[in-house]
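Dear colleague,

Following up on Tuesday's group meeting, I ran the structure prediction for the two-component complex that the binding team flagged. I've pasted the input sequences exactly as they went in, so you can double-check that nothing got truncated or mislabelled along the way. The structure tokens for the whole assembly follow below. Feel free to forward this to whoever is handling the docking comparison.

Inputs:
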Amino acid sequence: MILFFHQWQSELLKLFARRRTYIGFVAFLALELVIWLLFEFLNGEKRLAWLIARQGQAFEQYDSALTLAFIIIGLSVLLLGAIYLALVAGDIVAKENEDGHYRLLLVRPISRVRLLFIKYLSCTCYTILLIQFIVWTSFLLGLILKGWGGGFFVAILDPPILEFYPWGEGLERFFVSTVLISFSMTIVSSIAFFFSCLPMKPAAATIGALSYFLIDRIVRETGFMDNYDQFLLTKHISTWALALKTTIPWPVIARSFTVIAAVNASLFILGAAFFQARDLKS
Amino acid sequence: MALIEVSHLTKRWRKDRLALDDVSFEVRQGEILGLLGHNGAGKSTILGITLGMVRPDGGEVRISGHSVQTNRADALRQIGAIYEAAHFYDYLSGLQNLRVLCSLSGWWDEAEVKRVLKLVNLDKRADHKTKTYSHGMRQRLALAQALLPRPKCLLLDEPTDGLDPEGIREFRELVLKLRAEYGMTILVNSHLLAEVEQMCDRCVILKQGRKMYEGIVPSQQRKQTVFQLQTRDMVKARELIRSTGATIDPVTNLVDLPPHIVGHEMLRQIVEAGVRVDSWQAHKPTLEEFYLGMTGA
């Protein structure tokens, strides 16, 4: 076990020693600022005030750090989250192969499956860390601009949710839902990781993963598989938002996260099986 | 005693291209064995199979009795290797690269790492990022990683590729030193004949995936069996030579002696038969001559 942690530590050293890893963090910070600026200059506040007023609530009460942070997180993850996670996870196996690092790594007495598991674990950690970074920086930005206190207004289209919470309960719901979103996004990195294990270029692995999600989303939006939407991954990914409903449907959330965990495990096993069977030679 | 046993290796690449065809040989404890062959002869494929990077279609490789194909981890614990070009993480220092690689072997000993870095003359640059290293320094770092933790055997795949003459010499001296001081067994894969000639005790020559020769590097053979004869009585000399069981090339006049006759004995018989000998010189074939003859190039 100690050996495993040493090996994982080395993998994390590799991941966090390169500058490229931090580009994501900087890009998301910039995106959060851009979203806030657009929100300010494109009458976002007015629209929000109109939406809140329509529900018979006072805008001033819900114009808070939590509401702003939630809007920023939603848009950041929606716009760049999947792309960036697929990019990093698509790189993690395929790029090392392209760069010829396996010719150094795999002449050591370590199994390919163990090496892949360490990589997968690092990739999952990175996913959770990045999403949490977006959560905390958005919340910090909200606090700087709106200060502590106020209510929490939630408006989501998929699944349809429109809720108002006081500050205390809002904080609780905000952090529970953002922890869930971190874990649900691991499925994006798992798909990219799986493609990365196949004999293909890193960019192809990223494109493969994004294409899968695009098709999944399109199929879901068209209503073509309304009765079978439990087979669509985007359905399970969006379950995190259910933590923002007045009564949280924990069994539904638990089922979706079990599906996510099972798909993650299956993708890792499949990826490892393909990687195990490959000849690593230039 | 054989440290590495390569048995009946067969490998086909896509489109049924035969890369290895029933190749067997062994690397004995403490020897330096050169694997020779033209590009595409199968040298790197053999090393790839020996390191578990490539799966053979038939046959197996055993290192210290452990099969690479069924017990890879135990087999690879005995060896250090440079397989194809060594690509390090260029954003990490030399020392960090070694730390990452050694963690995969479950081993780290600061003092031993420093000793090896000094041995390869990289101790002063170990904390610098490898992107600032020259090609020669990268090769020396590759050798350092292969030596950590101290292996019984080194597998070197084209280790001097791209090095300047000075670098090649340094590398060769280092390899010879490793064998002399630590009794290390070394398998070198190269297409540089001079390198193999100067470094290796024995060699295996491959041609299109088939083994053509396994034995002592010809120029290092102790027993002299080929001599160059110059005489004006060539007809008489040929008759006599053939009668002893030796052969003589009609064009080059090279006399190839059978095992039971030594050079001075044959010369005595020729002279006693009344042949006026102008010159009788030992002829040592170079590895190049031998290799070209073997591969028919």
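Chain B has a mean pLDDT of 89.

Cheers,
M.
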